[in-house]
Design a protein that fits this description.
- By secondary structure, this protein is of the alpha/beta class.
- It has a single domain, classed as Alpha-Beta Barrel (TIM Barrel), CATH 3.20.20.410.
- It is built from 7 helices and 11 strands.
- The strands form 2 sheets. The chain has a 9-stranded parallel beta sheet with strand order 8-7-6-3-2-1-11-10-9.
Amino acid sequence: MQLFAGALLERPPGPKYTSELRFAELALRAPLPKPSTLTKWRQDLPAGFEIALRAPEVCWRSAAGPLRPSDELDAAMKWLTEAADALDAAMVVVATGAAITTGARDRERLREYFEKLPRMEGRLIVWRPTGLWEPDALQHIAYKLSILGGFDAVDDPVPSTDVVYATLVAEGLRRSFSQAQLLDVLDRLRRSKASRAFVTIESPQSFREARLLQALSEGTV
C-alpha cells in the first residue's frame, strides 16, 4: 500500500514542507484566490506533489440553504472547478456540516449536488460529512454516487475501496497523535484492500505528525 500523509493547510506548502511530504489538503479562506493565482502556486510546487482541495463552505451552502440550487451556488461551484484545474488537484474534498442531515430530502440533494459537480478523469471527489452519519451509511451513499467516502482513521472502519481518504482530527480530548496511535492507524490501513491511502491530519502538530506517519509507512523511523 502506498500512503500519502499530509496536513490541512490554509495556504500552499513551503519548501520545508514539500521536502518532507508529498501531499497536502488545502482549505482556502476568503477572499478566494483567482485561478491564475492558483496556477502560479502550483508551478512553485515539486512535480508529483499531490493536492486535495477542500471545497469552501460557499461551494455547498448559499443564502438559499445547504445544497440548494441558486445562482450563488453555481458561481461558487464554477470557481471550485477552475481552482481544482489550476492546482491540478488530485482530489476535491466536500466536507459538509451538520446542517446536512440523514433524511431522505437531504440525501436527494446530495445526489443532485454531486451529479452537478463537474468530474475530470483522474480526479477523485471525496465527501466528508459531519453530524449523525453512520460509517456504513456514508460509504453506501458514496458508492452509489461514484465518489469516495472520507472516514475517521481512528474510529471508523476502513472502506473496501482501492483508494481511501482518511482524516485524523484533534478535537475534544484528542489533542494530538502519539507514535503508537499513528502505528495503529497505519496497521489498519495496511490490513485493508486499499492500494493507495491519503491521510489528512488536523492538529496543532499536524506537520510533525504527518511527517512521522509518512516515515513509519516507509520504515525510516
